[in-house]
Amino acid sequence: MLPRQVELQYVGIDSSGNLLEIKLGGDKETLDSQGVTHVVLDNQSPNAEINYADGTATNTVTEFTEAPSEPSSESSQVTEQPSSESEPVQPIQEESRTVYVARHGTADVYWYDINSMPSNTNKANVVTMTEADALAQGKRHTSKE
């Protein structure tokens, strides 16, 4: 079963061991007599239907779309430049990017962030290499990152 609400409790402690009140300014915060801040949040997701009885969640997002970012004045200037100047920069960045490969470098996939690798990965057996080297060895970027 999943809880319909989650209660968070937080307090700070200074170097002398005294409790410090932490207020983030939310309207759901309450402070108890000992200086501990409590917040009760509804366990909801805009991207899933949560079944509280059996503890499952069903994805409601049909397709991943990247949120459009607000164009800055710099990015609009870059867009106006001829593409021949910006094209050589991209491959150089990709080729020199450090990637991580499990199983002493023998895994078929690579990761950009070692902390995104599965928790059962033996980090002592992870090898770093450039993305260009990984691609040259026939490796591909993992679909799980």
Automatic annotation (TrEMBL):
Keyword Transmembrane applies: no
Region (Disordered), start-end ranges: 63-97
Domain of life: Bacteria
Compositionally biased residues, Low complexity: 63-93
Record keywords, A-Z: Hydrolase
InterPro entries: DNA/RNA_non-sp_Endonuclease_sf
GO molecular function ontology, one term from the record: deoxyribonuclease I activity
Protein's name in the database: Streptodornase
Entry's EC annotation: 3.1.21.1
Entry keyword annotation includes Hydrolase: yes
